[in-house]
Amino acid sequence: MSIKNIITVPSEILKKISEPVEKIGSNEKKLINDLFETMYNSKGIGLAAVQVGILKRILVIDVSTKDEKKNPISFINPTIKKVSDETSIYEEGCLSIPETFIEIERPKICEVEYIDIDGKKRNLKCDGLLSTCIQHEINHLDGKLIIDHLSKLKKDMIIKKISKSKKNPDRILV
Ligand code: NI
After folding, report:
1. Is residue 96 part of a domain?
2. Average pLDDT for consecutive 10-residue bins of the chain (174 residues)?
3. What spacing in Å lies between the alpha carbon of 13 and ligand 1's midpoint?
4. Which end of the chain is more exposed for a tag (fewer CB within 10 A), N or C?
């Protein structure tokens, strides 16, 4: 396992659409382990493969709190099958957009179909934080970021601020 460099805005790769996974081999399993290690190291609750520069439809999530047992879930080729009319609002942050939090309204409940690490097709009904997190991460697989929910003006301001404060250029580890 290894901790990967997390890519931040304004890197173009974050806007790309990730490709479906056709076979789960040792590369995909290693990637999933690396994603978990990278996510836990950054104190995140979700991370998509594109955020470490790999355009595969793979993401990992663990929304357990500090006092709870860890609950890592990996999703391969996840798709949202159903959403509730009821919505919830969270102030969302993103490991690819440092120090930015944006209130986003999303469906409160969603049903996700995905393939697990053993290649089994699964369904998961997600509510609350898990629902928000999976929707945020699936957005990543489609090249969409939380700042895309804002006006262009606000979005440009945030990207400018982040670009200025950055000490190092983006590095992509593949
Ligand atoms: Ni994110």
Report:
1. yes
2. 94 97 96 97 96 98 92 98 96 93 94 97 96 97 96 91 68 46
3. 13
4. C
Sheet with 73-83: list strands edge to edge: 46-48, 58-61, 73-83, 109-115, 121-127
Separation of CA 139 and ligand 1 centre (Å) = 8
CA–CA gap between residue 77 and residue 21 (Å, rounded): 6
- Domain count within the chain: 1
Q: Which domain holds residue 151?
A: 12-165
CATH number for 27? 3.90.45.10
Q: Write the burial class of residue 122 (CB in 10 Å: 0-12 exposed, 13-18 middle, 19+ buried).
A: middle
Residue among 68, 86, 103, 137 flagged as catalytic: 137
> How far apart are the CA of 79 and the centre of ligand 1, in A?
17
Distance in Å, CA 101 to ligand 1 centroid? 11
Concerning whether 103 is annotated as a catalytic residue, the answer is no
In a domain, 7, yes or no: no
Q: Hey, is 58 helix, strand or coil?
A: strand
Kindly give, in sequence order, each residue whose CB lies less than 8 Å from that of residue 30, ignoring residues fewer than 6 positions away: 1
